[in-house]
Write a structure and sequence with these properties.
The protein has 116 residues and is an all-beta fold. The protein has no helices and ten strands.
Length: 116
């Protein structure tokens, strides 16, 4: 059975930091490109970060560039998203997905709330 579990979200003040984690089981995790996508209030799914199977090629969208960093550990079937200097606009539910749209093959998500 394929399963993805995101964790690490929480309540943080503006300017704060969080590290999100995603663990996949039941499929060849290391073969895939992985994406972090987020669902923010009033918006659709937004892909914020991409990583290739080897963890070498990474892309982040302009809105989070220099603040978010994606990484992976294929030996542990893990994907990470390190987030710093969080803003109110980063509030949302974050998902890891092997689908670049985030519409399929994702977990239940982890809530990130940035509030003072």
């Amino acid at each position: 059975e394929e399963r993805l579990v995101e964790s690490g979200g929480g309540l943080v003040q503006p300017g704060g930091s969080l590290i999100l984690s995603c663990r996949g089981t039941g499929f060849p995790f290391g073969n895939y490109w992985w994406y972090w996508v987020r669902q923010t209030p009033g918006k659709g799914l937004e892909r914020v970060s991409t990583i290739d199977p080897d963890g070498v090629y990474k892309v982040t969208v302009d809105s989070v560039e220099d603040r978010f960093d994606i990484s992976r550990d294929n030996s542990k079937n893990m994907i990470y998203l390190s987030m710093k200097n969080l803003t109110l606009e980063d509030t949302g539910v974050y998902y890891c997905s092997s689908d670049p749209t985030g519409a399929t093959r994702r977990g239940q998500g982890t809530q990130v709330t940035v509030s003072s």
